[in-house]
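P.,

For your records, the input lines for the assembly:
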Amino acid sequence: MRHGGPVSWIVVAVLLAGCGGAREDGPTITVFAAASLAAPFEALAREFERRNPGERVALHLAGTPTLVLQIREGAPADLLASADEENMARLREAGRVAGDAVVFARNAMTIVTPQGNPRGIAGLRDLERKDLAVLLCGPEVPAGRYARRLLEHGGITVASRSDEPSVRAVVTKVELGEADAGLVYRTDARAARDRVGEVEIPAEENVEARYPLAVLRGPREEAARRFADFVVSEAGRAVLADAGFLSP
Amino acid sequence: MRGGVAVARGASRAAVLLGAALFALPLIGLFSRAPWGELGEIVGDGSVATALGLSLRCSLLATALAALIGMPLAASLAGPATAGRTALRVVVTLPMVLPPVVSGVALLLAFGRNGIIGGPLYELLGLSLPFTSAGVVLAEAYVAMPFFVLTVEGGLRARDRGLEDAARTLGAGPATVFLRVTLPALAPTLRAALLVAWARALGEFGATITFAGNLGGETRTMPLAVYAAMESSPGAAVALSLVLVAVSGTILVLMRRQWFPVR
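C-alpha cells returned:
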C-alpha cells in the first residue's frame, strides 16, 4: 500500500482542527430553531446579515425537545425559537432564559394527502376510516401533541400507523404514498404544496400552535437581542407571513 | 538509549489511557446521570419489555435472513476476482458505508407501497412492508448483511483447501464436501459472522425509523424507544440506554471466546 505523503497528513490535521468545537469569539449569533421554522429562519438569518454587515447568524434546526435538551446540556446557543410554550417553560426552569420569552408567530394544523387526494379525504372525521394509513408525529414533539389535542377535542379516534419523529418525516412519507394522510403544520403543507395535497381544518376544530422566542443567558445576549428584535420587527413578520405563519 | 525506551513506553501508555478514556467516559456519563431511584419503575413499565422483546425478535430474524441470503453471496465473493464479482462486492458492501437513513429511504423506494417491488406487491396482494414488524426485519437485515457476508468471505478465503481436496479424492461429491468438510471447518467464522450481524441489527436505528416507522409493539425497537424518550424525558432515555448496555454486556460475556483471544 502506498502511504500518503506529509501533505495529506497536514490536510487531515487541518480538517480535524476545522471540526473542533472551539467557539469563535467573532460576532456569530447561534440560533436554535424548531424544525418547522427552517425556511423562514434561513431567510431571516440572511436578511439580518445583509442589514448588519460583519455579523453572522449560525442556524441549528431540530425538533424543539432536542434543542431544549442540547441547550440544557451546555450547547452554545444564544437564542431559542421553540415550537411550543411547554418546552420554553422547561428551559426557563433550568435558568437559561434571559428576560422574557415572546410569542412571535402562530401556526395551525392541517391534513396532508398524496397529490390529488386519491382517497377522497374531506375532513378530520375521515381520518377514523379503518382503510386509511394515517401518520401523526410522536407525542413527544410539539406537532404530535397538537395533533392529539385536536383529535381529542373533536372526539376523533385515529390509529396512527407510526409515531414519526418530525413533521418533515410525515410529509415525506405521505408524498411517497406510503401513507394516505398525515397531520402536520399548515406551513409544512404550504412549503410542499406542489408535492402533496392539503385538506384544511376549519378554525373551530383546529388548535393554535404558539412559537415563543427567547434570548439565552451567555456572553452574546446583546447581539442575540438584536436578532430577536429583527424577528419581531415589521420586516421579520413579513418573512414569517410569506411562509404561512400567522402573526401573534 | 534506555531513557528513550522509557519515554516511548510512557508515551504509549498515555496513548492507551487516553484511548480507553474516550470509550469509558460516555459510559460513565450514562451511569452518573441514571435515575437510579426510579430505574425499577421506568424499566418495569410494560412498554420497555415490549420494545426489548420486539428488538430481540426482529434482530434474530434479521440475522437469520442475512445468513440465508448472505451465505451464497459470500461463497461467490470468495471465488476468483472477475468484473461481475467486483460489482457484486460493491452492491453488497454499500449498506455498510451508507448512512442508515439513506438505506431507509432506498428501501422505501424499492419496497414501499409505490416502490419498484413494493408497488406490484401491494396492488396484487395488498401487502405493505412499511410500518410493520416485517419491515423492521428487512431494514435490519439490509444493514447487517454486509457484516455477515464479508466475515464469512474472509473465512472462506483463509480456509485450508487441502481437506476439501482430500475429501474429493476420496469420492465425496460437491454437496458432501461443503456440508461435511467446509462448513464444520468454518464454524468459528460463522459464529463470529452471526454475532457481528446480530449486534448490528440490534443497534439499528436510522433505516428502521425511516422505512418501518415508529409504532409501539409493532416497529418501536429499543433504539427507537431511547430516541423517543430522549425527546420527552431524558431520565427515562438514560434508563433505557442502561438496559441496552446490559444486554450488549451480556452478549460480550457470553461470546468472550469469539472476540477476546484465548490466553
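Two observations worth noting. The interface with chain A takes residues 108-109, 112-114, 128, 130-131, 209-210, 212-216, 219-220, 227-232, 234 of chain B (CB under 8 Å). The mean pLDDT of chain B is 90.

Regards
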